[in-house]
Amino acid sequence: MRREDLKQEYDIVIVGGGMVGATLACALATRAVTKTLSVLIVDSQPPAGQSAKTGEAATTHESFDSRSTALSASSRLILERFGLWSQLGAGACPINKIHVSDQGRFGATKLDRADFGVPALGYVVENAVFGAALNATLEQLTHCAVLAPARVTSASPSTNGMTIELTGDDVGLSSQPSRVEAKLLVVAEGGRSPLCEQLGIVRSSEDYGQHALIANVGLSQPHEGVAFERFTNTGPLAMLPLLPVAGEQRASLVWTLDADESEQIAALDDATLLARLQDKFGGRLGRLQRIGARAIYPLSLRVAREQIRPGLVLLGNVAHTLHPVAGQGMNLSLRDIDALVATLDDASHEEGALGSMSTLRRYLAAREADQSLMISVTDGLTKLFSSDAQAKVWLRKAGLLSIDLIPALKKTFGARAMGFE
Ligand SMILES: Cc1cc2nc3c(=O)[nH]c(=O)nc-3n(C[C@H](O)[C@H](O)[C@H](O)COP(=O)(O)OP(=O)(O)OC[C@H]3O[C@@H](n4cnc5c(N)ncnc54)[C@H](O)[C@@H]3O)c2cc1C
Fold it and tell me: With the C-alpha atoms ordered 346, 350, 355, 357, is the resulting torsion angle positive or negative?
């Protein structure tokens, strides 16, 4: 879409067309009332490639990059409701088993889908595949326009919601910012949020001093749908099963490293890096034989002190950026999106309800407990499993063993891993 087609007023403007912003737009289109609302997505990057079938395909969009996302079984149900699973399912690798262990120490937890009577404990979807599915769905939506690449430079309260200023040479916006009005502004800008700073929304921030190195790894033997999470002295190392490409078995690596050594490790030649990785991970997936493009993500916990204001709501990483230790960031945001869309749909018969504080408070009240729990669980796990202090080593050894040995604990742990509790 170009400037000529830009309207002056929208019901909802979404800043950020990444994983969360684009999913929200698709979800809005599935409810009786919200599907009639006019929606504008503004994203600072060009749309994700249509042709991406796997994460190996080139995509320059930073949200739909070579990462993969582990989705819980309950997230699948949400994505089905959003009409997205029909496209995503074919590119999603089912997780049959989860294996959690502590490097060099006895004690492991094994979850098996058969013990829970479910088709899969979860799924792994490459972000590029996610982006292509979102993009294809957005193109079909009649009430939703995408302006990209364009940037929202400021937002301020107005009588009916928020006034937003936009720039974007490539979509024909002049150097003078264009203005649009929104009854509700959804900020889904990702971890860095200049808009929050401009609006004076404080976000607490704790740097974990760790970086995640991610890459796709070619395996010498089938992974059989097993997701491995191995805790090492620098932090967790995950190998998540991916669908094969051209007959090659693959896993998605998320390797937590000390911030000061990550650049140097990422710069190693393939053979040395694979040997280092094999040493850390062990032989459970056979020989690790190929490593793809690498990327590094600094890890921190960031939580917004306010998520709603009149005419404004924060979603996704802007609201809560979590450590990827338990793969919960997107899963949590899917539950937020589900609740927000349901609340907006229910409230839409009330005059001026879209951006009203009573509507937005109802949304937040429905989400606060889950958000707080996930924030404290991922933060607690990160700190427990990134330490060599003897007390913590014993605690996690006892934890992993007892989860594996006590059926009731295993059921609770499994239900949580699948997102059902
Ligand atoms: C290594 C790693 C592994 C992960 N693994 C998992 C996992 O397995 N499971 C899981 O559930 N979660 C996982 N996560 C978390 C998940 O990736 C995030 O929750 C998710 O990407 C958040 O999406 P977002 O849309 O909020 O932000 P982003 O993906 O950062 O998207 C923000 C978008 O906003 C745009 N933007 C920013 N500012 C502006 C502006 N002013 N104007 C216009 N556009 C703007 C950007 O261009 C971008 O497109 C992982 C995270 C990391 C780092």
Answer: negative
Q: Within this chain, do residues 288 and 143 fall inside the same structural domain, yes or no? A: no
- Phi, psi values for residue 167, rounded to 5°: -130, 160
Are 375 and 321 found together in one domain?
A: yes
| H or E stretch at 169 | none
Task: Write the pLDDT tens digit of every residue in 134-158.
Answer: 999 999 999 999 999 999 999 999 9
Question: How far is ligand 1, taken at its centre, from the CA of residue 206, in Å?
Answer: 18
pLDDT in tens, 255-280: 999 999 999 999 999 999 999 999 99
Ligand 1 binding pocket includes 78 (Cβ within 6 Å): no
In a domain, 141, yes or no: yes
For residues 22 and 37, give the distance between their C-alpha atoms in angstroms, rounded to a whole number.
15
- Give, for ligand 1, the residue of 189, 323, 332 to mutate: max count of ligand atoms closer than 8 Å to Cβ: 189
Say yes or no: 216 and 308 in one domain.
Answer: no
Output the CA 30–ligand 1 centroid distance in Å.
Answer: 23
| Whether the Cβ atoms of residue 151 and residue 42 lie closer than 8 Å to each other | yes
Domain-embedded: residue 247: yes
Q: Which amino acid is at 93?
A: C
Structure tokens at 63: 């949200």
Give the closest residue to 29 by CA, choosing from 15, 42, 39, 41: 39
Nearest protein CA to atom 52 of ligand 1, as residue:
324
Query: Does the beta carbon of 216 sit less than 6 angstroms from any atom of ligand 1?
Result: no
* 329 in the same domain as 279: no
pLDDT number for residue 20? 98
Look up the CATH number of the domain holding residue 232.
3.30.9.10
Q: Is 147 in the pocket of ligand 1 (CB under 6 A)?
A: no
230 three-class SS = strand
What residue numbers bound the domain in which 376 lies? Answer: 3-69+129-204+301-381
**How far, in Å, from the CA of 341 to the mean position of ligand 1?**
19
299, 330, 353 - which closes a domain:
299
CATH of the domain at 170: 3.50.50.60
- Domain match, 218 and 288 both: yes
Residue 222 and residue 285 in one domain: yes
Cβ of 122 less than 6 Å from ligand 1: no
Residues 93 and 162 in one domain: no
User: What is the total count of domains within the chain?
Assistant: 2
Look at the pTM and tell me if it is higher than 0.70. Answer: yes
Q: Which of 81, 68, 103 is nearest to 327 (CA)?
A: 68
Q: Ligand 1 test: best mutation among 180, 330, 340, 382, most atoms within 8 Å of CB?
A: 330
Residue 311 or 351, more confident:
311
CA of 63 to the centre of ligand 1 (A): 5
Q: Do 155 and 35 share a structural domain?
A: yes
